[in-house]
Amino acid sequence: MAAEAPILDEFRRLRARVPQLTGALAAGVDGLVLAHDTPGVEPDGLAALTAAALGVAVRVTDATGRGDFRELLVRGTDGYVATYAAGRTAVLTLLATDRVNVGRLHLEGRRAGARIGELVDANAAPPRRSPAKSSAKEPAKPMPTRTRTARSARTSTANARTTTDS
């Protein structure tokens, strides 16, 4: 992936701002690793678990009318696992010690998730054609508009939303 090096740079800056971080992973919502810095933790397994947790979190926010997924925090006896939305198709998972300032973790995790989302979404976007190369035969297409409609409760996990717009 072309964005791996910039994502790893973002991980380095994040670790400098939050020294209690012990790992960072960017993954697609499908559970595939985009970039990782997770010493002592197997990244493919963590990415798969993150995708599973994301599926549950999306269902919970949807079922309770809390809107689109933004973040998930899990606290264990030895520290935290925090997952943040990173653009339309990725998530950022951070591992931290039990001594981390959780407010700082959220602040920096949200910012890093937004930056990583921009990197991932920019690489996933199809290349745009310049107006000079457009054919005169093709009329300009207007951008589609999205509207929100009321949703009914879902009963199947196959229909769960996995978008992670930030």
Q: List segments where confidence is low: pLDDT < 50 over at least 5 consecutive residues.
A: 132-148, 155-160
Radius of gyration: 18 Å
How many strand segments? 5
Average per-residue pLDDT, rounded, comes to 83
The global form is globular
Question: Structural class, from helix and strand content?
Answer: alpha+beta
Roughly what percent helix? 25-40%
**Residue fraction in strands:** 15-25%
Q: Helix count, per DSSP? A: 3
Element-by-element helix/strand order? HEEHEEEH
- The N- to C-terminal Cα distance equals 21 Å
Main beta-sheet annotation? 5 strands, antiparallel
Strand order of the largest sheet: 2-1-5-4-3
Describe this structure in words.
With 166 residues, the chain is of the alpha+beta class. 35% of the residues lie in helices and 21% in strands. Strand 4 (79-86) and strand 5 (90-97) form a beta hairpin. The protein starts with a helix and ends in a 42-residue tail after the last helix.
Summary tags:
five-stranded antiparallel β-sheet; 3 helices; 5 strands; alpha+beta; 166 residues
Mind sketching the topology for me?
Elements: H1 4-17, E1 21-28, E2 33-37, H2 43-63, E3 71-76, E4 79-86, E5 90-97, H3 102-124
Antiparallel strand pairs: 1-2, 1-5, 3-4, 4-5
Helix pairs in contact: 1-3
Outline of this structure?
The chain is α+β, with helices and mostly antiparallel strands and 166 residues long.
